[in-house]
Design goal:
Helix content is 48%, strand content 14%. With 147 residues, the protein is α+β, with helices and mostly antiparallel strands.
Amino acid sequence: MRTPPKIKVLEALGAIADGRVAPTSGGFKVRSSTGERTYEVWVDLERGLVCSDDNGTKFRGYVGYPIIAVLMLKGKLPFNEKLAEALKGIPWKKLNEEMKSYSKVMELIYAMLRDKGIDRSEVDEFVNEVISSLKKLKLKKVCPENK
């Protein structure tokens, strides 16, 4: 799978902080920031297989934020409590649709985090650590029959 845009790491932290990630009998459900969509996530870490019906994973071929969030909760990717708390309540979908540019949304998020005392370099260091860890997992998208 392709490497996700860096903003997806921050979206995953926000989803966890907002309590939008929940285990199910067959995997996990991750609610969108607007609450209008729920994504089904399935992971088989022993075989390095993942599946999610979010747009990034399904249509763009990268590891979407729902999978990243699940992997953080499972302890397979780094997690930063301070950063997660600072990202609580962000309307990611609304911002992405309005600004039509992940880089513009990232700049807005950097400014917001700076106002909360979190330096851009701290954010970038954490995001790069997650992306590096994600690459080492060498995940493949394979959805079970019932997905």
